[in-house]
Amino acid sequence: MKGQQYLIEPDHSTIKSVFSSQQAAFQKNPYLSVTERRSNLRKLLSLITDNKDSIISTISDDFGYRSPHETELLEIFPSLQQIKYAISHVKKWMRPDRKPASIWFLPAQTKIIKQPLGVIGIIVPWNYPLLLTVGPMVSALAAGNRVMVKMSESVPKFGQLFSKLCSAAFNDDYVAIINGGIETGKYVSSLPFDHLLFTGSKNVGKKVMAAASRNLTPVTLELGGKSPAIIAPDFPIKTAAKRIAVGKCVNAGQTCIAPDYVLLPNYLVNQFIKEIRNEVKHLYPDGVTSKDFSSIIDRKHYNKLTQFLKDAKNKGAEVYDIMKNDSQVGLKFGLKLVNKVNNDMIIMKEEIFGPILPLVTYNNLEEAFDIILQLPRPLAMYYFDYDKTRIRNLLTNQIAGGVTINDTLLHITQDSLPFGGVGESGMGHYHGEYGFHTFSKRKGVFHQTRINGVGLMNPPFGKIAETLLNFMTK
User: Is the pLDDT of residue 1 over 60?
Assistant: First the structure.
């Protein structure tokens, strides 16, 4: 029996019933073969490729307008790549790791088995609704688990579409997609999952973690925060401006790893503003009406960005409108640079999550690095420099979830790298083999042999045991 398509506000008893069916199905078949895992991953692959156009148009409808090319580049393509990567590597990931036994216990053997955890909960944000659903699903399915996904209420049309597609491809006891509002999200996070992954804001993440703690459910939190872009004094400012502009403007800045503020020498501020204005004009020649520039998700978030700017202006900041036609067009919000900021401004306290980019000046790189160290550890860090010694110092002394050198965003696209935050920007990680291990139990196994010497150390202890203990403890 194929799964049903859930209503926007499903009854909690329905969710509980599906969850129980997934637990029961896992108990009946707790270790899926590599063939079964690849089959599930291929179903997910076909689900996306066969419905690419409807996925793109539905996400755009939820946003009010979302550049179709952005969705294809930033969601469709990386989702497919993650699935293909897992299909190619899952057999290797599943192999037990042989480990050397302690010399005192030879000829015994030891190994590590990667065992599926059971039922995995995934709570999805709205900003990349396909990618941030598929990414954790790939890791969980590759690891041999059952999956329950709570979609974001901010993208209801896509949530319903994805539920319909998954219901046609999977039984409920493998994959269940849950749509609904805040109360549904609270209920889902309260279920006793074997692991729960949440992507979203820090404040909601705290609530999810608190709910999970009541069941001792381990959590992976993918949050966000203030991700800096640091420009070294001698780095080509035009190159930095171009790459930062791209990283900040895709999806209208609604990206958890978007550059949140720029650190640069004071004497380069005017040139940076000039270069980024030129670059944005090239990227989006029609300003906010350009077909490649996306909309803000909803009125509430649009008003929040407006309030950020108002607060900054009232506290002495200079705001530069970078995009032409920068009048209200639907919920389009053109890129703004904000100079002369201070720590009392909201934009320097909260994650911006939109096309507003504060400029923070420094006298030397040591001062710039000190500024970062005074703030919570970021999800991402971007450093523009060709000096290998300074790059090495940054990588050694600064802690961040991930780093891209001389560009933005691209570390998240590498399936061979872990993705995740640290401190206030999150905990745990996934992607590729790291996601496989997140949703697996690495179970240590000691295999005793027929003939062994362990019995020499059993009571009653005599001279042989004393001699051995003296030798072992020297």
Answer: no
CATH fold of 12-223+425-443: Aldehyde Dehydrogenase; Chain A, domain 1 (3.40.605)
> pTM higher than 0.85, yes or no?
yes
Q: What is the pLDDT of residues 127-142, one digit of tens each?
A: 999 999 999 999 999 9
CATH number of 228-420: 3.40.309.10
Residue 260 tokens read as 């949140």
User: pLDDT tens digit string along 80-104?
Assistant: 999 999 999 999 999 999 999 988 8
DSSP H/E element including 202: helix 202-213
Q: Where in the chain is the domain with CATH 3.40.309.10?
A: 228-420
Residue 355: closest CA among 287, 402, 437, 413: 287
Contact predicate 440/392, CB 8 Å: no
Which residues 6+ apart lie within 8 Å of 337 measured at CB?
Answer: 273, 276, 319, 320, 322, 357, 358, 359
Helix (H, G, I), strand (E, B) or coil at 121: strand
Which positions are catalytic? 222, 256
Hunting for tokens 């891209």 — which residue is that?
A: 404
Percent of the chain surpassing pLDDT 90? 88
